[in-house]
Amino acid sequence: MAEIRVEDLQKRFGEFVAVKRSSFTVADGEFVVLLGPSGCGKTTTLRMIAGLELPTSGRILLGGDDVTFHRAGERDIAFVFQLFALYPHMNVRQNIAFPLKCQGMSRSEVARRVAEAGRILRIEHILDKPVSGLSGGDRQRVALGRAIVREPKCFLMDEPLGALDSEFRHVMCGELRGLHDRLKATTVYVTHDQLEAMSMADKIAVMNKGVIEQYATPQEIYQRPVSMFVADFIGSPSMNFLRFQSALAPGDDVVSLGEARIGIPAIREAVPAAELALGVRPEHIRFDDGSSLRGEVYGTEYLGTTQIVTVDTAFGQVKARTGSDIRVADGSHVGLSFDAARLSLFRASDGGCIRSALYEGSTHG
Amino acid sequence: MSSASTTAHSVVEPSANSKRLAGFLVILYAVISMIPLAWIFATGWKTPPDSISYPPKVVFDPSLEGYCNLFTTRTRQTQDYIEAQGPPQGACDEVTRKREMVIAGPSNYVPRFINSLIIAFGSTFLAVALGVLSAYAFSRFKIPLADDLLFFILSTRMMPPIAVAIPIYLMYRELGLSDSALGMILLYTAVNVSLAVWLLKGFIDEIPREYEEAAMIDGYTRLHAFFKVVLPQAATGIAATAIFCLIFAWNEYAFAVLLTSGRAQTAPPFIPTIIGEGGMDWPAVGAGTTLFLIPIVVFTVLLRKHLLRGITFGAVRK
Questions:
Q1: What is the pTM for the complete model shown?
Q2: Which of A73, A83, A89 shows the shortest C-beta gap to B216?
Q3: Which Gene3D superfamilies match (chain A) (predicted)?
Q4: Average pLDDT value over all residues in chain A
């Protein structure tokens, strides 16, 4: 296993810049997820690490060696594809043995490794079956088997659960993370599904339009998003943004939205008058009749233990997550109050966050 | 409201009557297309008088004469000469002597047939081999003007091949390729390769490129991955394409008449010449045609599993 360093990586397709000057390091044994909407450059980044795509500029180091322009086969990595790419003309055992055969390994060693991979993934009973009749989950396990027999420097996975149905995806998430914990394998995993990312990753790189907006632990990304894009992309329902005009000075810990005065983490930078957005997670909203920030209930989605209440306010629509025991009638007027220590502020112009006490102790901000 | 049927009508299942009608039409079509073949087969086993009798004989005494005449050349001799030869050697000798003739030697059918085999299979192999390489390139790489090139390749099929017969004849004479197996192989390859590229590109497009990428990550070069991973999966398409190419090359008549005569003549231009050798020898023609059908039948039967899957053009997901 090895560390992956990506330095100043850039990829152009003609005029289109797919990946813009990205740098990040995946420590030895870490599970990193590249997360972003489709077309954000996450798969291109992964394919460049694999050697399936050559970067326009920048460097890629695997375990300290510069492999930027090495062929894929010379990098000693394993890649798991979304469509699994199991060879249909081979059975399960031959599929798993294929990478070892490519390396010209002895037959007894191949048999030993395949048996071990079968044991780790609990697919010993299907080793001699053709791949065509396998269920999605078994195909996925075979694809993983083909990756782990290599004992490669790192695993690269491109939406490996994308082709599975949603309930099974959840099971495989657990299995994948369990596998990673046992093998301690450096892993880069690409997905557009934030739940997959949050549940498996040691670190998440959130990408947007070819740029890594934030690279941090899932907790960090959820609690201290560095941009409106990250704040919006992570979390379901996503973060509420209340837009207002104001200027701020360092030390301010209250903002005014119309009549309402809302406590926020102490500001650490001077902000000239501009349009700002107050970011509030749905679960940090309480109904409070004493609050002067008021709105009209638009609708309620019942989710079992919690419910999502949508409220129209003068600053935009707000979704609040509350216990489902609270009854609010559609059309009723409610007051809202927020958990002051958890709020973020963004410049509406570029989506960047405004430094505050919230970000202290974090790696960004 | 039909009272007779107790089960509900399915919207997608054909009804019993439409199934019967479909079955009838299929059988009718099969009979119509099989009759000429059956007639050719039967003619091969008739005697020359039976083959031209009117009304035509459906029931007849089978005779070896057609096959004997196909494989031999004969000369007419006097009765005295024939008697001086001693007892007939083999069935063909006997049949021939009844017509007051003796066998002079083997006919050209076998060498012509071998020419056909060499030229048809040779050109099929070349066309498919070139086609699969170029189809792979068109499918996988960014080729400048790829669409125009593909159209250009297809456009060679837009005129009847015989339209260029005279220039090709002159060119071949100049290059010393006329009446040579190599010349015919090159010609049929050139005609077939456009079909092969188009058919195979469709099949290769259907193979996800992840397969090669996976193999390349596992340490194969692209060429290695092409042979070990792409080719096995394109087997269906290759089989279907090979059959189409083989049928064209096997049956081609016009260029074969024009460009071959002595050395490299194929079976199609040779078979009609049998008619001229000593009267209307229809049984020999029937026998020659029957044998001529065999290689295509064998090849198609061997590959039929691939062919049936192949002509759906990957419409069914594997």
A1: 0.77
A2: A73
A3: 2.40.50.100, Nucleic acid-binding proteins, P-loop containing nucleotide triphosphate hydrolases
A4: 89
